[in-house]
């Protein structure tokens, strides 16, 4: 399969722009003077399709690695000039223009273009090699990768995508051979992040999912052209969707046979972790062929198989010989890091201690990776030298070393050092650090900074952090920005995050016209998701919609069947929903009789959450002395369990019950005062404290507490103020009552969800 990508990729299927005339913001002379600044100015002003249309000129002048056609250059001279205006930072476009200038005898123009090409190449080669966590070399398009390597006198031997989905970057690793040095070096490139930042009119532009769309389009074009890296990526994605290891390996065999690095890695992983008869059949032969071609990564893979006796016969002499050969052809760091990666993927941690790699394992880059590996395994016995290599500039091209240091200092309870490490990681653009900084700003900053929080949260989400995507989606939904709420979730849904899938279905279940999805479609999605054994929450949501007739006609039989599936295996939440469904008559006749066995199981279990949920329902829906006494007993038993919210719910019920017989303000105040002693009291619990203060006659105190609730709520959600239409929790309504010297009585219906 070919490794070289066709010169032109038209992305009109992804985005569409009017190709109107536009003055050049970056010219070739400014590129020659300062390529870094030229890139910055280009990224601020360039339009996606306009920039990418520049690549069309490559075919017109018959550009190839060998050169261009002089006559075609004369015929299309104006288009060559236009391409330089559209994409002055594209190495292949500048190189094409240079070759045309040389072919047509334009010496002065060639000199200027050569200066720009040298400047762009130097700027690019600053990155891509800083082990163990390099900053990818930014290029405008795939063709620029190979043009740069040619300019640098390097030969591309093999390549692969490092990840299966875009995150902060979507790196393409290219193993390049330097004939003069006699060494193979892996360079990382990225064009997906670059193109995602250009101005675009696609509805997902500016959201994480846009990178997925771009990556998918590049992959489709490259697979069509038989580009091995893309074929490899497609095979791995396909294998990841399959359940059985034998089916996964079958999906990987073809791409592995052509030398697909990620396919080979996953194949090795499967045979190590989920072995089956015939798993490794053909694997050793494929790696042997690649090793004979002197490809370093397959050489290390074959060494690993022999060193671990995995698939191949265990033979330390063969393993060490292969590693010695790999060390002669590549840096010790690259060889050791690949071996370490295989040991991690195969869950063979002892393999890292291989004697023939002992010296390589002492290199700073490898020490940094080992320190991070230990922290990932919750091993925090690091040496001072480990901390030093994590903090070193070489480990922080993209801030990863500082991020791992922040995790180390968190475990050591050194807040000052943790925050400093987070600051340094965030300055380098690490998405996890940016996300953590955003959450810290909500709670620790002396003053509210909504703009700063949102800026960091958006950067974290665009870098692949799912919690940031969810935060931004929830915030958008609260503000009734339904399309934005959907768009922030799409990338994590695409990545298979089950919570994101449920959140998106919940949005659709509300029948918002702007989304073009209905409750019926949400129901279908819950049913589909619920087919997976682990998706009990999807089955519960489908059951609730079926009980209440939301999205479909009421269907108590299906609802009961979905709930029974998990209730019978001991899921307390499903048992509670089933019991209350029976009690409320949503699941057919004889509800009380059918409910009792499930109530008994809830009461007999150790899990507190369902007990508290039953107590909440019982106290609000039953007036009998025994029923309310049982509810109080269940709350009391769970009151010291912070996660159950029993103490809060008991105080709320006592202070806000509509039924005078259910109110017990003195007891409610006692429990609310107990909550006030809790550190970092959640604003939802402070809301309960305010309600009890008002119930006891302390309306001024209640108003102060309620205002604090609103302040903390608006700060968390990065709002300048809380508008009435966005106050779905009723905080403003309660504040007005307290200011009018009135208590709050909760007349909302009690439910099990």
Automatic annotation (TrEMBL):
Signal peptide: 1-23
Superkingdom: Bacteria
Entry keyword annotation includes Signal: yes
InterPro entries, A to Z: TPR-like_helical_dom_sf (IPR011990)
Alphabetically ordered keywords of this record: Signal
Name of the protein in its database record: Sel1 repeat family protein
Lineage: Bacteria, Pseudomonadati, Pseudomonadota, Gammaproteobacteria, Lysobacterales
């Amino acid at each position: 399969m070919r490794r070289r990508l066709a010169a032109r990729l038209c992305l009109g299927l992804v985005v569409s722009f009017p190709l109107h005339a536009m003055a050049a913001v970056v010219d070739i002379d400014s590129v020659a003077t300062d390529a870094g600044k030229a890139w910055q100015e280009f990224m601020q002003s360039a339009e996606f399709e306009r920039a990418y249309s520049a690549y069309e000129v490559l075919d017109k002048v018959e550009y190839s690695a060998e050169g261009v056609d002089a006559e075609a250059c004369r015929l299309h001279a104006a288009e060559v000039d236009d391409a330089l205006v559209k994409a002055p930072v594209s190495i292949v476009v500048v190189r094409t223009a240079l070759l045309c200038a040389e072919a047509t005898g334009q010496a002065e123009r060639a000199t200027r273009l050569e200066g720009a090409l040298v400047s762009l190449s130097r700027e690019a080669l600053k990155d891509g090699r800083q082990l163990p966590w390099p900053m990818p070399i930014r290029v405008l398009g795939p063709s620029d990768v190979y043009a740069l390597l040619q300019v640098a006198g390097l030969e591309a031997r093999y390549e692969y995508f490092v990840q299966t989905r875009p995150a902060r970057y979507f790196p393409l690793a290219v193993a390049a051979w330097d004939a003069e040095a006699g060494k193979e070096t892996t360079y990382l490139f990225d064009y997906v992040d670059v193109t995602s930042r250009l101005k675009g009119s696609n509805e997902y532009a500016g959201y994480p999912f846009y990178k997925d769309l771009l990556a998918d389009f590049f992959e489709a074009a490259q697979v069509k052209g038989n580009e091995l890296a893309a074929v490899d990526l497609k095979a791995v994605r396909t294998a990841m969707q399959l359940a059985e290891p034998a089916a996964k390996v079958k999906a990987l065999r073809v791409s592995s046979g052509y030398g697909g690095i990620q396919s080979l890695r996953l194949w090795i992983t499967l045979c190590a972790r989920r072995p089956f008869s015939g798993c490794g059949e053909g694997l050793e032969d494929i790696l042997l062929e690649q090793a004979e071609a002197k490809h370093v990564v397959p050489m290390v893979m074959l060494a690993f198989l022999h060193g671990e006796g995995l698939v191949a016969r265990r033979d330390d002499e063969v393993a060490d010989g292969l590693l010695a050969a790999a060390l002669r052809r590549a840096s010790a760091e690259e060889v050791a890091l690949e071996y370490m990666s295989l040991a991690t993927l195969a869950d063979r941690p002892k393999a890292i201690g291989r004697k023939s790699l002992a010296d390589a394992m002492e290199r700073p880059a490898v020490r940094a990776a080992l320190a991070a590996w230990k922290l990932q395994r919750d091993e925090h016995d690091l040496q001072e030298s480990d901390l030093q290599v994590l903090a070193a500039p070489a480990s922080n091209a993209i801030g990863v070393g500082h991020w791992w240091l922040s995790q180390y200092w968190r475990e050591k309870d050194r807040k000052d050092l943790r925050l400093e490490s987070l600051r340094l990681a965030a300055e380098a653009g690490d998405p996890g650090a940016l996300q953590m900084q955003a959450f810290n700003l909500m709670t620790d900053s002396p003053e509210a900074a909504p703009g700063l929080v949102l800026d960091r949260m958006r950067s974290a989400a665009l870098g692949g952090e799912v919690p940031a995507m969810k935060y931004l989606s929830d915030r958008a939904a609260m503000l009734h920005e339904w399309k934005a709420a959907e768009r922030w979730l799409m990338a994590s849904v695409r990545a298979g995050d089950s919570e994101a899938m449920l959140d998106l279905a919940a949005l659709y279940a509300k029948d918002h016209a702007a989304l073009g999805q209905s409750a019926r479609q949400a129901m279908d999605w819950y049913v589909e998701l619920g087919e997976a054994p682990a998706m009990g929450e999807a089955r519960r949501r489908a059951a609730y919609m079926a009980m209440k007739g939301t999205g479909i006609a009421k269907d108590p039989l299906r609802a009961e069947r979905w709930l029974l599936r998990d209730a019978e295996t001991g899921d307390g939440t499903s048992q509670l929903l089933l019991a209350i469904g029976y009690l409320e008559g949503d699941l057919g006749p004889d509800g009380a009789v059918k409910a009792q066995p499930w109530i008994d199981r809830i009461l007999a279990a150790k899990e507190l959450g369902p007990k508290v949920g039953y107590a909440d329902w019982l106290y609000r829906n039953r007036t009998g002395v025994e029923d309310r006494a049982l509810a109080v007993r269940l709350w009391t038993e769970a009151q010291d369990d912070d996660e159950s919210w029993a103490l809060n719910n008991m105080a709320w019920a006592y202070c806000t019950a509509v039924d005078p017989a259910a109110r017990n303000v003195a007891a409610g105040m006692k429990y609310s005062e107990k909550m006030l002693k809790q550190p970092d009291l959640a604003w939802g619990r402070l809301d309960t404290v305010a309600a009890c203060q008002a119930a006891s006659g302390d309306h001024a105190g209640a108003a102060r507490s309620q205002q604090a609730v609103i302040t903390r709520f608006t700060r968390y959600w990065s709002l300048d103020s809380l508008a009435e239409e966005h106050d779905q929790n009723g905080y403003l309504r309660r504040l007005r009552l307290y200011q009018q010297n009135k208590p709050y009585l909760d007349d909302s219906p009690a439910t099990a969800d």
